[in-house]
Write a structure and sequence with these properties.
The complex is a heterodimer of chains A (425) and B (519). In chain A, strand 8 and strand 9 (299-302) form a beta hairpin. With 425 residues, chain A is of the alpha/beta class. Chain A has helices spanning 16-25, 27-40, 56-59, 101-105, 120-127, 165-199, 207-226, 264-284, 304-309, 318-332, 355-366, 385-396, 412-420; strands at residues 3-6, 50-54, 71-76, 87-89, 114-118, 140-155, 237-257, 287-295, 299-302, 339-346, 372-378, 401-406. In chain A, the strands form two sheets. In chain A, strands 6, 7, 8, 9, 10, 11 and 12 form a seven-stranded mixed beta sheet that branches. Chain A folds into three domains: 17-56 and 115-129, no CATH class; 165-235; 248-420, Rossmann fold, CATH 3.40.50. Chain A is flat. Chain B is an alpha/beta fold and 519 residues long. In chain B, the strands form three sheets. Chain B has a four-stranded mixed beta sheet with strand order 6-7-8-9. Chain B has a three-stranded mixed beta sheet with strand order 1-3-2. A two-stranded antiparallel ribbon of chain B has the order 4-5. The longest helix of chain B is centred in the middle third of the chain and has 22 residues, at 195-216. Classes of the chains: A alpha/beta (425), B alpha/beta (519). Chains A and B meet through strand 1, helix 1, strand 3, strand 4 and helix 4 of A and helix 2, strand 1, helix 3, helix 4 and helix 8 of B. Strand 3 (71-76) of chain A pairs antiparallel with strand 4 (400-405) of chain B, so a sheet runs across the interface.
Amino acid sequence: MNYIIDRRLNSKNKSTVNRQRFLRRYRKHIQKAVSDAVSKRSITDIDKGEQIGIPSKDISEPIFNHGKGGHSTGVLPGNKDFITGDKIARPPSGGGQGGQGPGASDQGEGMDDFVFQITQDEFLDFMFEGLELPNLVKRQLAGDEEFKMRRAGISNEGSPGRINIVRSLRSANARRLALTGGKRKKLKVLLEQLHSEQEKDCALKDQRLIEKLSDDIEHIKKRIKRVPWLDDFDLKYNLHVKQPLPRSKAVMFCLMDVSGSMNQATKDMAKRFFILLYLFLKRSYQHTEVVFIRHHTSAKEVDEQEFFYSRETGGTIVSSALKLMSEVLNDRYPAGEWNIYGAQASDGDNWNDDSSACRELLINELLPKLQYFSYIEITPRDHQALWEEYKEVQANHPDGFAMQQIVESSDIYPVFRELFHKKVA
Amino acid sequence: MTNPASSLSTNTPISTDSEWTFELINAYDKAIASIAKEYRLDTYPNQIEVINSEQMMDAYASVGMPLGYSHWSYGKQFLNIEQSYSRGQMGLAYEIVINANPCIAYLMEENSMTMQALVIAHACYGHNSFFKGNYLFRTWTDADSIIDYLLFAKNYISECEQRYGLEEVENLIDSCHALMNYGVDRYKRPYPISAAEEKQRQREREEQLQKQVNDLWRTIPTAAQDEQVDEPIRFPPEPEENLLYFVEKNAPLLEPWQREVVRIVRKIAQYFYPQRQTQVMNEGWATFWHYTLLNTLFDRGLVTDGFMLEFLHSHSGVVFQPPYDSPHYNGINPYTLGFTMMSDIRRICEFPTDEDRHWFPDIAGSDWLDTLHFAMRNFKDESFILQYLSPKVMRDLKLFCIDDDDQNREIEITAIHDAPGYQKVRETLARHYNLSIREPNIQVHSVDVRGDRSLTLHHVQHERRPLGEQTGEVLRHLHRLWGFDVHIYSIQDDKVSAGFHCPEIEEPNPETGIIIPLA
């Protein structure tokens, strides 16, 4: 007897566990591949999945086998013009064909990397593994934008769509019982009387009494019937109430110098850094907003497009951006509700006497409200006054402030990891 | 051939469309089953499961086992398959079939009706009857209980993982896998494995085993009678070729649960051992029967010309053998060799030539069905080729024989497909399928019971072929299982030609000789 079974709807992820175990086991390799990929990628597809290659040698499962050498014989198909006794040169090793018949196929040498695909989520997991947001306070808040409907029992009012049928009918039933109880009792008595009257011998029957009883019964039945089967106030509705959803919110300030000294390559590096930070924040908070502030001698809040692509020239006053940031903060992002992160990218140029103003602003105005502020300086040159002033800030606020220098785009990911690596408590 | 076809050629085809439905699968199965019965194919009941390609990849990754314990190596397998499949480098096999009762065969949803019929004929009647008939499967595996046993193994290992930690169990299984090919009894008939008994006896066994091991390693002096036996005891008294078995029974430091895990890997290796020995026959048999069964369907007018064209296209792809110098060459295709030989046996029986009468006096002209069934039941690849590889097949495949000796500068062609060469080509090819020659011959030689408890293995070299580069790696795995020093020596003509040690030690000067017991 044969059975045909349709298994297509069964789960298809039988191998998931094994796949996870494989990824876990080769985490180091994958981590390396991911970090290579991050530095190589263009900005737009930085968070895509990735093809990972691991040298086959590293993941082979060893078994006892024969090595090269010795004396072996083999049989091969497809002879063209050999005859017995022919001698042929030994093919270069690793070619695999025409060599030692049995040995050729099971030699593991010369194999390519073991290549496989990981998903976007897994890619991000590996990318941010071992990193954490410093001073992560999940400021939980009864937000005023998103709600979730929750059931909240039964109510007497509501829209017809939410009628609770069971409850409504039950209450109608109770009402009917309550309103007709006395009459039913009476009816019962009358029915009994009528019955006993009718049982009597014909001669003894009192026809008038019977008629009267019948009338009364009719009357009571009518009255009972008049009690409505379902009344307005029987209707019960499921009650749903809106409940605000607590959400953790973060806002990220991207500050960038767009003065004449910043060229497109430098801006690209800054952008990569900002994107990494944004992806990272997005993973840690349910809701992330980004504020772009660019500045030369004066600062301006702009949208993303303008932030990265519009060209400006002129001098540089960094404090203008910090001032604007502080204003935006006070206006829109009260520190009690938001987790606030700042990231500043610059080539280090600044008006000389402005740098100390920046320091003051940071220490007094911004850092008390901020979770974290990171500064990257994208320059191959020596540091200038701004760097020195910021050094001082870092000394004062080692937890909330970090700074790093980036020279080439391949530095970005390592620097990012440096800034956010998990600190052992 | 008994073919009542012509009278029935007015039959209407079962289907004319390439779409399959469950009704059609059923109809084809019935038709094929009735023809299979005429050809006396005796099968286990079939359980045909329709799955999608992702499930097929899952099944693939676990070597077709419908349930297996979790291990990273299966994940690696899966990723590999997923990658090559999604890139279109590889089509998935049409079928996977495993030796169980009922015999489970998978059909892939994406296939056309023709392919489904092909798979049914191939797997459900070809492989299935082979599993039921071949002597190796009959003696070495127990199709009734394998599913239960796999379930037991899966649960046991996941229980161990919870109790002793993932890493611990994974390392242990890694080590066992490295020795899996050496976890089979080649000559002894193992117990049939049955999950119910297995579970019942497992605890008993744990205690028992531990007791035996403890006895072996006892250091407390016992009664006086023992003291007389002061000569060095030799353990094991006979060399042992089943390394995993030896480890399971004798490794001094393994916990009872670890022994059980070793046993599980060993049992599964044993279960697959017949498959590794009968690849050519098994595939050849199944291919021969799908070819014969579907042709018979066609003769009876049950399938259309279009069906046959699609089938033949796929069939010829399966039995294609690229020549040795083609970039696609990857060894001899077992489907080709098996199918050609099976078809040739039929030819020898039905239309023997003088050459056949000379080479196969007992089967030339006999009943082909009897002969073929006999061959299927009583041989494995090695003996099958030795017995039945005919000159015609050698000529058709243009087989030739090479001799590669590292002491010579060149490779010599020692025989080709001509009269003086037939015998040699046949013997050489048969030897190629002898697992004990294909794999290095490694056995447990001795254990230093009274000394440092080190384990010594001997590799008996065949034709001076050395051990591969991974030997040191494997030895580390064995060391993990054994818990004390492990040595392996390659022996050629009673001389030690190489040695591996774990942990590694300074190699003694070969001039002065290595002092090891060679007795």
